[in-house]
Prior knowledge:
Layout: H1 8-16, E1 36-38, H2 46-54, E2 72-77, E3 82-89, E4 103-109, E5 127-136, E6 147-154, E7 164-169, E8 175-181, E9 187-194, E10 202-210, E11 215-223, E12 229-238, E13 248-257, E14 267-278, E15 291-300, E16 302-304, E17 308-318, E18 325-330, E19 337-340, E20 344-345, E21 350-357, E22 365-375, E23 378-389
Parallel strand pairs: 16-23
Antiparallel strand pairs: 1-14, 2-3, 3-14, 4-13, 5-10, 5-14, 6-7, 6-13, 7-8, 8-9, 10-11, 11-12, 15-17, 17-21, 18-20, 18-22, 19-21, 22-23
Amino acid sequence: MPYYQRSPQRSSWIRTLKLATATTLLATTPALVGQVILTSDNQVDAYTRIKSKLASSPETPDCSHPDFGPHITQTIDPDLQKYVFDFNIHVTPDNDRCSAFDRQRLEIKTEGNASTPNYVKGFLGDSVTFRWQVKLAAGFQPSSSFTHIHQIKAYDGDASAPIMTLTPRRGSPNTLQLIHINSSGVTTTLTQTPLAPFVGIWVQGYEKITYGTHGTYSLVITRLSDGAPLFSYTNNDLDLWRDGTTVVRPKWGIYRSLNNAAQLRDEQVMYDRFCLAKGTDDCVDPNTLPEFTMTSKAFYPSTHVGQIAYYAIQVAPLRGFADSGNFVVSGLPAGATASFRSSTFQNGAGTTILGVSTTGDTPVGSYPLVVSAISGTLSHVATVNLNVIP
Length: 390
């Protein structure tokens, strides 16, 4: 039954509901030419979405732990109110792709092969920019051995050791270390800071590199909620190349040693909004770019079997957002169907009515429904409850 076949007791409400359209602001969206941006919106599975942007499948321990399923999934983060990538690693039985058993690897990366676009490859002399968001779970436990959450690594040639790593390390206190390994294999901790301010919150890394034996490197990590700086390092003469390599590339995820497995626990690390840029292109701080907000209101969330529940969903612009998008809903119980009065929004704003029709096949119960508003690489979610009563 479509949502507009309304019950008599609700006709008055439907007639008086006015769909609001927020005023479009005059500012325009800056062009993001060339940048590769990877975000989560749960419209396809995580591995497919990652490969579609990075031209490479994740490196996972799925082969050693098939009953768990994919070790990278998409989940709703309550702080960001959107889907994010959820990296799950387990002390047992995860390993490094069933080929090494003293370590565990769950990483995404670009490749250096012929099928990978040159734009996401780092060649000798290239200048690249990376920006990403990450949240370590509350209680995150690194070991006294390595636990990398980001690497810069050669694709071929002398590729056994990474060039740069961002590494949480167990200690008193636990620390976050930036580590460099030069072409001679000498490992140097360039700087470190207590780990506690990075745990349980979203932070954003902004990294700029020029690849070469006398390369340049900078990394700034800020708190995502307010932009407060938490970590900063710059070096204008650093060995950022490897003998025999043709490409250097970034990696993000969890790569950790099992040499001190008793110090570890099963972990969930959240990542989102990866940006890769090259040359004069830059990965602009998303907190300065046009965005939108999403709100929901349940007018009639409870319905008898065979009737309809109604919700109002609204999108409003921030910082001059003026793009179009669409609404989708998931989590419907058996026998239920959803229909939007308008499944799209235009010019950065819009309000729609979601009607959820139930049938005799819909079980009595309470069901959380996830409504998503999606526009390009941007998305937000709202969770509404459907209550089906006898």
